[in-house]
Design goal:
Low-confidence stretches: none
Distance between the termini: 10 Å
Structural class: mainly alpha
Mean pLDDT: 93
Number of helices: 4
Order of helices and strands: HHHH
Strand content: under 5%
Number of strands: 0
Helix content: over 70%
Radius of gyration: 16 Å
Number of domains: 1
């Protein structure tokens, strides 16, 4: 296996998982009373919160709605498409 194939095998599920976690965070913003420090939800909060904290400082909530998870879904989707899409950089190298 080449390094490009190994990188693709690691990045594809990792970026897909991060998109899923951020989409789950979007749903959780509809329920502000939910405690993100409790067991099942802490598995969603721990990997996403380091991305969301600086984004919230730059882009405050709009009308009381936190849009930072939406921004990260877009960013990660773009990176995934650029690297792993049908004409992505890593796809073209392999």
């Amino acid at each position: 296996m080449t390094p490009v194939e190994i990188t693709t095998l690691v990045l594809s599920p990792l970026l897909g998982l991060m998109i899923f976690l951020f989409i789950f965070r979007i749903v959780l913003t509809w329920y502000p009373q939910v405690d993100l420090k409790r067991f099942p939800l802490v598995l969603v909060a721990l990997p996403t919160e380091p991305f969301l904290i600086p984004t919230r400082k730059i882009i405050p909530p709009v009308g009381g709605v936190d849009i930072s998870p939406i921004i990260w879904v877009g960013i990660i989707s773009l990176v995934r498409e650029i690297l792993l899409g049908q004409q992505g950089l890593l796809t073209m190298m392999s």
